[in-house]
Amino acid sequence: MIKEYRTINEVVGPLMAIDKVEGIKYEELLEIRLNNGELRRGQVLEVHEDKALVQIFEGTSGINLKESTARFLGHPLELGVSEDMVGRVFDGLGRPKDGGPEILAEKNVDINGEVINPVSRDYPDEFIQTGISAIDHLNTLVRGQKLPVFSGFGLPHKELAAQIARQATVLNKDDDFAVVFAGIGITFEEAEFFMEDFRQTGAIDRSVVFMNLANDPAIERIATPRMALTAAEYLAYEKGMHVLVIMTDMTNYCEALREISAARREVPGRRGYPGYLYTNLATLYERAGRIRGLKGSVTQIPILTMPEDDKTHPIPDLTGYITEGQIILSRELDKNGIQPPIDVLPSLSRLKDKGTGEGKTRKDHAPTMNQLFAAYAQGKQAKELAVVLGDSALSDVDKIYAQFAERFEEEYVNQGFYENRSIEETLDLGWELLAMLPRTELKRIKDDMLDEYLTEGV
């Protein structure tokens, strides 16, 4: 039986303490009815004997402790899911935000998801084409992977996110492909940018969008990525779709966690973040994957801004431990007009070898990837040496490598945010750049492959 309580004892920030409760469970949903009839929703954070600590999604301002009532609903926060969600826009708590009708849900699903049995997991090994050379060729994304983007404040990560959402596709598959986009604590201008881009390019027709704005309650930020992942899991595992989940900005999510932790008076960990930050992030990132016997998959690209461009900051540091690599954006490349400014050398996709090769991309993918990476690294070293000692200190081969590095950034990495390159176009461009180097320097590619692909006159 559902009871109403008039025993609200204390309010601190977004948190509320309720006394003399019975049968209440962790993460249970509740409704707070104010004396003016307004309803607000919340969630149980902690239960101790007959006391419950709850967080209110819409905030606690204006709540009269004596006149307001609390009503526990007996279930956790849920999302009503249906195939009709595709093409729709929702707020951070899953309510329609595009002026369209309410979703007629096939069922209501707990947003915290269910743990995937490790034995049931299938290995990610199918190539996803993003149309971006620096990702597709050098840091390949595969279906079921979680590959974060590490950015900095002011860098064009929102343009990169929109480009991936527009262009991403699974090659050689007739199965449906969908994008679930979660804006977490983003500004109104950023939200307008994404929505305008999605509508103009038609990407909205295959997307499910959840938008939590910067002026929305911080507590709502905790639910937004879980809403997005719940929708993705439904489309993937019950409707057989390949789903790409893009979440930006995970830094705002972690800041909301820190805010709530401080309000709960918990002992802070590194830089004030709660000690369970790693575990909490893992509950999100580990929802990516493939399940044996099921057609669909969930692939994640979480995007985060590194405070002060610091890779050792707790958010990127812990994210790197959980995920399979990272794409790093460079402030120096951005200043030089390289778009997208992907810093190839420190970026990494740990599963890139599993999604490449004949039958997936092309047989020359891995050898050219290794050769381009090595040549670019050597070219960067040659350029740094020239800055210190002058061009006269470079050998003829070093000068070629320096020129290679410049052309690599200008022609290969720099493609703009609206050019969609197929993997064949990217590989052909790689061979064109490698043709600059003497054949004797191409030590990572076998002779028969050089004979087949390398342009004449080298």
TrEMBL record:
One of its GO terms (biological process) is proton motive force-driven plasma membrane ATP synthesis. Keywords: ATP synthesis, Hydrogen ion transport, Ion transport, Transport. Residues 131-349 form the ATPase F1/V1/A1 complex alpha/beta subunit nucleotide-binding domain. PROSITE patterns: ATPASE_ALPHA_BETA (PS00152). Belongs to the ATPase alpha/beta chains family. This is V-type ATP synthase beta chain. One of its GO terms (molecular function) is proton-transporting ATP synthase activity, rotational mechanism. Residues 9-65 form the ATPase F1/V1/A1 complex alpha/beta subunit N-terminal domain.
